Amino acid sequence: MALHFLVESATDAVEGGVVSLTGAEAKHAAVVRRLRVGEAVTVGDGRGVRLTGVAEEVTPARVDVRILERVVHEAPTPRVVLIQALAKGDRDELAVQAACELGVDEIVPWQASRSVSRWEGAKAVKGRERWATIVREAAKQAHRTWVPEVAPPVSTAQLAERAADQRMLLLDPTASTRLSSLEPDGRDIVLVVGPEGGISPDELERLENAGAERMLLGDTVLRTSTAGPAAIAVLSAALGRW
């Protein structure tokens, strides 16, 4: 399979033309991935454009790719959004990486009541930037044409507001309805994953009262790092993406 890279914009890219990788992306292509002249590559802008071409010039500062084909992919619909509670260590980051590879369309950090990790002030900015970097690299690995957005952190109150407009699913090991039985209704799906210890009873009640649905993922209790990705795999099948 051809190597895949990202550029900031491919709006002006046309078949027969040249698209250039610069900065860190060029260095990654030339030094880390050892791209060679004449090698086939694909290039995307993360907003639906996929270019297929051949490397014409390769240096750590600049990589030129001659475009052989340009295809524009529509954004997936309905969208799958992951509300990932902040977790200690790198567990939330592992969830973000896997969720991106598996096809999530947006990721939202959630400061849940049981979150050990706390994002406040500058830490929230750096945390979001860190997640965005993880998402970008995971999207390249998966050759995704659309790179998911990482939204600003939200509170439980903000989640409750969102539950009124979108189909919100709460992963809850005490729920009676299995996620695998879900019948899509055309609305965007907002999947909520709690931190270590799960979603608190107060949060479950508040979100359910706002319109969210409790869903059982399976008979085992998964870590916060694996629950979201596992649920996204189930939803991808239900939505016909897989």
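Above is the first protein from milestone M3; the second protein from the same milestone is given next.
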Amino acid sequence: MVERTDERKKVIVSLLGLAGELGDLNSTFKKLVLQRDSRTLRSDLREDIGDILWYLTSLAVLHKIPLQEAARESALKAERLYTQGEVNHFDDGFDEEERLPRQFSVTFSEKRNGKQVLVRIMVSGVIVGDTLTDNAHKGDGYRYHDVFHLAYAAVLGWSPVIRSLLRRKRKSNLRIDEIEDGGRASVVEEAISVLLFNEAPQRAWYSEESSVDIGLLKTIIRLTAGLEVHNCTAKQWKAAILQGYSAFKQLTDHCGGRVDVDLDSQTLTYHPPPPLEDAS
């Protein structure tokens, strides 16, 4: 019907019409605010919304976009962004040695090498990965950044970096090993960690929920396109960021400690290092 009644069939006309109808909708609500009561509100809204839908449909027709398809994609996007999400089991069906442990603990400890402060991590008493420095001209604590990857593992059930450190890559499936657990996926994960870390000073080090906004989360989700973690929701990413930075602050404040990782409860739990014994 819209295609039949659209006499102009020009994008600019549809855009200007849509802008005008949105202005009418704004005026309808302004009237409600000023008068605090409007017996015609429902009918006015019905008319405004109908006109907006006409111009939206006109734009969709001009660009050959089925409205049902657009609405379905929008609903899927909203679900990915705003629903709580489920506990993920990306490695179900693989042998035990190729799965991320559902629960494990990681100990962070510092040592000095001249002016440098280095951090090593241990799992079950075994050193894993390289000893890390801040890799920066000025110390900023990035030597503890593995805790961010632990947060992704705990909350999202995903971390190619942790899989590599724990030697839990899914090598029995060559395609999964190459794409999901390979170098490119690890680079994406590290890029997300660096992006968040560079933003952290302007966002109060993610000490408040409001510091992780939807714009940042959308950027992260776009970076994961094509990977299994792309199905994780924005709320899951937000929880991973907040938990990771909470543990990061405690690790840097106490110069180390232990972090318990629980993929089933999607949590990180920090424990400070034991007090040093009095040498005297």
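Note on the second protein: Residues 70 and 159 are 32 Å apart (CA to CA).
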